[in-house]
Amino acid sequence: MLTSEHRPTARVLDILQLLSTSKDGFSLTEIAATIKVPKSTIVPIIRTLCDRQFITLSGNGGKYIIGINSFIVGSSCLHNIDVLSLIKSQMKKVVEATSEVCQLGILIDGDVLYLAKEDSSEPIRLISFVGKRLPAYSTALGKSLISEFTLEELHQIYKNGLQPVTKNTCTDFDQLIKECLIAKKRGYFSEKEEVSSGICCFAVPLMYAGKIIAALSISIPSFRLTKEKKELAIHALKTSKENLEGIFRDLNIDKDLFENSLLFKTK
């Protein structure tokens, strides 16, 4: 314990932090043993926390779990977190590392909805912009977002088929599925001039609890796409993916919270 800590308060926090790690809860004996405090010392703390509904007995063999008031306090914290700012800070790092444009998108009815964009100092013209929707199958960003769908699901989403955006757009369902399978194995998605002439893109999905909630991409003009630039771009995307998914886990930011949070205050 830090010398500046107030011991009784520290024990309260130790109990709450411990219970937050398990949905099954802990018995009084387990709590005392884990935080290394005598049971007689924590009994009044436990009683007070129960009375104030910060913890509760689960009925599962007398084990304590997090209570409703702890949930309310935690939820109020999430409402104050600007998720978009957290993500854009990582997008800035991608741009700094690659000198190329970085974009964030989510899936809406088979389309990519672009939520954020970080420009680079290098000139580039894109047809995508914040608020723009494009067919997901025509972009690297979109392919990463639909990569978990089955062939049957894709046919349901795109009932009129895969309409070309450019002459390079993938318009074959089987080919799209094949591309997605390969991309998932290598850890990134790509497209070459499928939505914008002269532009290549790379993207990674952002996951929470095994589900895709968004995606990040880098757009690079074909004339600047060297082997070194491609490797740099993919490394930057994968690094930001790892960092952001860690943040999502720490803050318990799932797909519903993500889509209904401050992300829709697009800038």
Automatic annotation (TrEMBL):
Residues 6-68 form the HTH iclR-type domain. GO terms for molecular function: DNA binding; DNA-binding transcription factor activity. Keywords: DNA-binding, Transcription, Transcription regulation. It comes from the Bacteria. Transmembrane segments: none annotated. The keyword Transmembrane does not apply. This is Transcriptional regulator, IclR family.
